[in-house]
Automatic annotation (TrEMBL):
<keyword id="KW-0560">Oxidoreductase</keyword>
<dbReference type="InterPro" id="IPR006659">
    <property type="entry name" value="Arsenate_reductase"/>
</dbReference>
<comment type="similarity">
    <text>Belongs to the ArsC family.</text>
</comment>
<dbReference type="InterPro" id="IPR006660">
    <property type="entry name" value="Arsenate_reductase-like"/>
</dbReference>
<dbReference type="InterPro" id="IPR036249">
    <property type="entry name" value="Thioredoxin-like_sf"/>
</dbReference>
<protein>
    <submittedName>
        <fullName>Arsenate reductase family protein</fullName>
    </submittedName>
</protein>
<dbReference type="Pfam" id="PF03960">
    <property type="entry name" value="ArsC"/>
</dbReference>
Length: 121
């Protein structure tokens, strides 16, 4: 199991605390430092069953600078969204846990972390 985190994020710290309390085996990826390539983002989106706009933090300053709220959300702009997430990883919703069974979850709640742990065992 791998968890993408921003150490400054309270939801990420909470997820790590929960994983540790359960004795989960996981790897931490500080995605602001170890920025995912577009291909990695595509793979995680496939595992999540989501589109890039579904995991984009549209309230971030850079999102406003890029005008993301005005971008189309369809197949023609999908790659543009993915490139933006890779170029500006702060836009990626967090934490994301990739489970051992090939799935992933956006683990913003205790229930989502539990679900990831079930899939990871």
């Amino acid at each position: 199991m791998e968890i993408w985190i921003n150490p400054a994020c309270s939801k990420c710290r909470s997820a790590l605390t929960q994983l540790d309390a359960e004795g989960a085996d996981y790897t931490v990826r500080r995605y602001l430092e170890d920025v995912p390539a577009p291909a990695e983002i595509r793979a995680v989106l496939d595992r999540l069953g989501l589109e890039p706009w579904d995991i984009t933090r549209t309230q971030e300053a850079v999102a406003k600078e890029l005008g993301l709220k005005t971008w189309a959300r369809d197949a023609t702009t999908r790659d543009q969204w993915i490139e933006a997430l890779s170029a500006h990883p702060k836009l990626i919703q967090r934490p994301i846990i990739t489970a051992d069974d090939g799935t992933a979850v956006v683990a913003r709640s205790q229930e989502a972390v539990q679900e990831a742990m079930k899939r990871g065992s």
